[in-house]
Design goal:
Layout lengths: L7 E5 L4 H12 L3 E6 L2 H15 L3 E5 L5 H15 L4 E4 L15 H29 L2 E8 L10 H21 L3 E8 L12 H10 L12 H8 L10 E4 L5
Parallel strand pairs: 1-2, 1-4, 2-3, 4-5, 5-6, 6-7
Helix pairs in contact: 1-2, 3-4, 4-5
Length: 247
């Protein structure tokens, strides 16, 4: 019996990168997992993997979290399959490149804020309210070091993640005392976003961390599982830095 036996865990952006590592870890700890991302094939593949390996229920759901309707459909799917959610991990993220600040289009701006902030707000509001009614739960928001160390090449993303930090603290007050809401502020990790980094960017990240390297997806998992578990029973409204020691 793992820490999350008999619990239902929803992970957005759950089919790849850090989200996939989280889903595998929650399933290994006995959780029923809901894997949500835009690409249903990848969700289905991971659901089959963790279901076979760990004998847990795994529900794949196609969801673009920037869409209010998709968020509501995800909540409905969770309700229909399990009747509740005990943990929500708002992990889906997006940070497209742009040539210059004055060339950021309205579409790009809206997409970045939609995925990184609007979606977490809607899902947290809907599922968090249900958690309160059910007597408890936990929400973990995956933020970024960009929220407090913004750069010109990722400014809309940094703005959205700063908003997510604010949302984390506000929801902790709104949903307490029964539902805890915390964040993990991630540094540079080797994920899909990192594939767009040039060797110069990678080198700069490696030089800027005390550990001298970029994180691997699995290295964010212990922090997420801790904040989602009863081990963090007196922790809410906190944003934990997992960034390799960035200044």
């Amino acid at each position: 019996m793992g820490r999350f036996a008999d619990r239902v865990v929803v992970v957005t952006g759950g089919s790849r990168g850090m989200g996939r590592a989280m889903v595998r870890a929650f399933a290994a700890e006995g959780a029923s997992v809901v894997i949500a991302s835009r690409k249903i094939d990848a969700c289905e593949e991971l659901a089959a993997e963790v279901g076979d390996r760990h004998g847990v229920a795994a529900l794949p759901v196609a969801c673009n979290v920037s869409s209010w309707d998709d968020c509501d459909a995800l909540v409905d799917a969770v309700d229909a399959a399990f009747g509740r959610a005990d943990v929500l991990v708002n992990n889906a993220g997006l940070s497209p490149l742009y040539p210059a600040l004055d060339e950021v289009s309205e579409g790009l701006f809206d997409k970045v804020l939609g995925v990184n902030l609007k979606g977490p707000f809607r899902l947290s509001a809907a599922l968090g309210t249900r958690m309160v009614a059910a007597g408890g739960g936990a929400i973990v928001n995956i933020s970024s070091i960009a929220a407090i160390r913004p750069g010109p090449s990722e400014l809309p993303y940094a703005m959205a993640k700063a908003g997510l930090n604010t949302l984390t603290e506000g929801l902790a007050q709104a949903f307490g005392p029964t539902v805890r809401v915390n964040g993990v502020q991630a540094g540079p990790f080797r994920t899909d976003i990192s594939t767009a980094w040039t060797p110069e960017v990678v080198g700069a990240f490696e030089r800027s961390t005390a550990l001298g390297r970029i994180g691997e997806p699995e290295e964010i998992v212990p922090a997420v599982l801790h904040l989602a578990s009863d081990e963090a029973s007196f922790t809410t409204g906190s944003v934990l830095r997992v960034d390799g020691g960035m200044p």
